[in-house]
Amino acid sequence: MTIDTLKSAIPDYAKDLKLNLSSLASDETLNEQQLWGSFLASAIASRNDVVIKAISEEAAGYLNAAAFDAAKAAAAIMGMNNIYYRFVHLSSNKAYQTMQAKLRMNIIGNPGVDKVDFELWSIAVSAINGCGMCIDAHEAELLKHGLTTAQIQTAIRVASVIHAIAATLEAEQALAA
């Protein structure tokens, strides 16, 4: 399965998603590794088998093994961190903000790829998972390392389109059952 196969699975009423997927797949705001790592991390965060399979097969043509694993690692670690830090942020008990997380996050310090790329993939996943605290932290790192707001926006656009495609395909599956 490839992106073309994925596009063919998107129903006509969601044509805008198909168009956005096409334009993002050829977007030049990010380099190939940043773009396809954003796609892969977002696909994994979408939790949709069809989307994960299509995007992972397509991304394999653009990412080396280390980048492929790092994008998967970004989705994994943010899956944990987004829950924890969203709780810390949303809890009315401010004592949690002073406590150490006591969660292993070694991959963030040594992701096996350029830290900027890993941060970009992490912010995309954090957007999908709705963690404002993580979004702010990753955005600050990205800006500090010279990424532009346009580049960050591209990763978030990828995340939004991938998430919407996953939700649409799941709705279609549920309606067909």
Structure description:
With 177 residues, this protein is an all-alpha fold. It has a single domain (3-176), classed as AhpD-like (Up-down Bundle), CATH 1.20.1290. It is built from 9 helices and no strands. α3 runs parallel beside α7 and α3 (32-46) packs parallel to α9 (149-176). It is globular, with a radius of gyration of 16 Å. The mean pLDDT is 95.
The percent of residues in helical segments reads over 70%
The end-to-end span amounts to 23 Å
CATH architecture descriptor name: Up-down Bundle
Number of strands: 0
N to C succession of SSEs: HHHHHHHHH
User: How does the major sheet shape up?
Assistant: none
State the low-pLDDT regions, or none: none
CATH class: Mainly Alpha
| Beta-strand proportion | under 5%
What structural class is derived from the secondary structure elements? mainly alpha
CATH superfamily: AhpD-like
How confident overall, as mean pLDDT? Answer: 95
Using the CA coordinates, give the radius of gyration.
16 Å
Q: Could you say what the CATH topology is called?
A: AhpD-like
What count of helical segments does DSSP give? 9
How many structural domains in the coordinates?
Answer: 1
* Overall 3D form: globular
Helix-strand blueprint:
Elements: H1 3-9, H2 15-25, H3 32-46, H4 49-59, H5 65-90, H6 106-109, H7 115-129, H8 132-144, H9 149-176
Helix pairs in contact: 2-9, 3-4, 3-5, 3-7, 3-9, 5-7, 7-8, 7-9
